[in-house]
Design brief:
Length: 59
Amino acid sequence: MADFIRIVLSVLVPPVGVFFKVGFGGQFWLNLLLTLFFYIPGLVHAIWVIAKTPDQAVA
């Protein structure tokens, strides 16, 4: 369910969905750059990151 919410956020603002998945890492900055140049590549990258990255275990 959390990934669904992240994908919905990514449709509106792709870097937000990536941030909630991986934080301020390289994937976030790449997505921000893609989104600033063109919206669609940023959106595709955000959905790919959200779908392929496993959730971090909460201790």
